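One record is set out below.
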Amino acid sequence: MEYVFGIPGGAIEPLYDALARSERRGGPRAVIARHEAGAAYMADGYARESGKLGVCIATSGPGATNLITGVACARENRVPMLVITGQPPLHSFGRAALQESSCTGIDTVAMIRHCAGFSSLVSHPDQLGRKLFRALMAALRTPQGPAHLSIPVDLLRAPAGSGFDLDRMGALLAEPSSLVDAAAVERLHDALDQARRPVFLIGEGCGEAIAPLMRLLAQTGAEFITTPDAKGCINPRHPAFRGVIGFGGHASAIALLRKSPDLIVAFGTGFGELSSAGWSDALLCERLIHVDANDEHLSRTPMARLHVRGCIAGVCEQLVARRADAEGAAILPFGESGDALLDDARAFHSDAVPIKPQRLMNALTQHCPPHTRFVADTGNSMIWAVHCLAPRDRRTTASRVPADQRRPRGSWLRVTMDFAPMGWAIGAAVGIASAQPGVPVVCITGDGSYLMSGQEITVAAELGLPVLYVILNDGALGMVKHGQRLAGAEPIGTELPRVDYALMARAMGIAGHVIHSAADMAALDWPTMLSRRGPTLLDVRIDGDEVPPMGLRLRTLGSAQ
């Protein structure tokens, strides 16, 4: 853990004092966000990219409540995070102390308990070691997620109590990575042997299992699809890839399932609304085998013919070891242009003004190097990224990517599912770039999200991080606007002011450019933008009438016409 993300305050001041002394000795660095939610998003992005624990801290009262959205997002996406908040001194509880948030005030411990796997108040120095260990267990063991400790300021000033052995804690937290249900793996092996048209569904939980999973894919000749949040784990030009299923996905993925494969093997997915095409019966059926280490995920597929509980990498390694190397079945290649799966390939190449969002994604595909990390915000930004981005990532298996360009949970595309707050990607990009120094990060966001959280770009500037912020500027809350139009609802509350975001960036000392056309994009100095010490902002004026592939969401809401 190299960074702690947060905002100082009186009730947490002793912790920042300790961080300052630790940093001088080479310890973790304090990164100061502009809003506590941004700090949580940064810790989220850092944890996803590095595979390490993300840490965020805030003061009592509103500092803690401002963290809640980011904590809830981390829980829904199973991101390991330690959340530390302050409290006024114990002796002041119940006396209307400034920003008191104990059980006698605005009870932030109880609030966060609903958004985290563990939330507790430390009321005595001797509790700290035990409760810290419980919090780390909750954050790092399966299912991973955020854990919260609230610590009064007088306890932060006190000497550490007994039972605080960091070495012993580290040993106990080392989770076995190879535990699998051997009998269920044997049954899965037999099912794959008998299958003539197997299909694999790869979920976000497969980040550490991609190498053996791709070997298994080659051995079985299976075709595969991914959930939206797993597209970044694979090479989108792999010849067996048939697209993304779910939010922003491809018709080819559903078409593959409608061909009635005799076996569907799902790895590492929780089958939420956005990752299952609205709980499609083409996927959730008796042909399904579900492989996951998370019992909650497995409980959502009672119709499956087999559940295989265990570490996904371990399951795949055992299956690969049991099978002789074999030629894969004949499969059609993915289009070299990167647009073979798109619903409308013409827009992907269009030079129309204003710019088609698909054309923008094409430019990012063409100009960003293979090791670029993309992070896309909730809304149309996520839909267009999931649907259209197909960078020339060299990855067929994870082992082909240099070790300094890929971490165990690394992914070239990060999106947030289920809870999905707007503005998440703006802070998450800072965390991702912090975890991967020198690797370019591209944040794809909308003007609505940027108006919510755009101030976090100044953190990237302060840290000298090479983040390219790309704003899809259509002067509207685009996803809401198109949802209203497609549902025949009243057009209300979607218009945003026309803002020159590049000018805002330059006022902050950040390079900013307004992009009106494909020619403007071609004229940019992409290598410099993606390697400079500090962020760049592109204010891209997109065609706001271009409808994203969002029919799935409307059907689930029951509002599609």
